[in-house]
From TrEMBL:
Keywords: Disulfide bond, Hydrolase, Signal. Residues 35-279 form the SGNH hydrolase-type esterase domain. This is GDSL-like lipase/acylhydrolase family protein. Disulfide bonds join 58-83, 134-144, 198-247. CDD domains: SEST_like. One of its GO terms (molecular function) is triacylglycerol lipase activity. It holds the Pfam family Lipase_GDSL_2. The lineage of its organism: Bacteria, Bacillati, Actinomycetota, Actinomycetes, Mycobacteriales. It comes from the Bacteria. The active site is at 39 (nucleophile), 273. Residues 1-26 form the signal peptide. InterPro entries: SEST-like, SGNH_hydro, SGNH_hydro_sf. GO terms for biological process: triglyceride catabolic process. It comes from Nocardia tenerifensis.
Amino acid sequence: MRRTSRVVVAGAALGVVLSGAPAASADPGFGEYVALGDSWAADASLTQATDEFVPLGCAQSRGDYAKQVAAALAVPVFRDATCGGATTKNLTAPQSVPQGLNPPQFDRLTPTTDLVTLEIGGNDAALAATVQSCLTTDPAATPCLDALVVDGVDQMSLNILAAEPTVIAAVQGVRERSPRARILLIDYLQGVGIGPGCFPTVPISDPDADWLGRKLIELDTMLARVADATGAEFVDTYRTSAGHDGCQPPGTRWVEGLVPWSTTPPGPAVPFHPNQLGADHQARSVLAALGR
């Protein structure tokens, strides 16, 4: 399959909002950067969606953290394969999306790739889709707990454990294709905390909200284990995003709630996904991990 390359010379050339990232580095230290992952890596956006690297149906933001990192480092060659809805299968198999087909994400890797960011696993565990099934008009209802915790067995915990070997294989697949690459495994922002939620602002009951918060921690803990097992570098965006979950007011929250409207940037948003403030935090976290 034909490989495509994009050259990044400055943030302005990409139309990237660099509100949260440092200025471009005179000595990037990296020659070829590839970004891989799902909608939280694409920082899925309706107002800033771009088809520069992937089909428009991937909802990849022109201000996602990978583009910010590439611009801040002035990386000469950059490819952003991230796509909403991606699972680890879509690293090696094409992903059908509205308005197109995203080729296997690994197709963007080459033997000369020397920087890779990877954020994946939430869709493999079905945690992202499960959030929608927790919505209710009854503050006493617990649709997620009722469906997913039966006789003391938590199906979501099992899903997360089952996703672990697939994420391990994903990191190993990156290393096989790009043996020189520095691999950063990114976790998921604190979109929901532990404890009571904010019903009805986000119409999820307190017990289900607390359960979701704990499952998110389990998912991020699994990713940390994968990084440890594979020698990838773990980038913790969760602990540093406390107090910026979807229950917080506009301007404070880094992850949107149910109401599909954002102030950063103004306009329709993808529910339960990072807004631009969240993308900026992800970019700062990656750059900090790189010592920038």
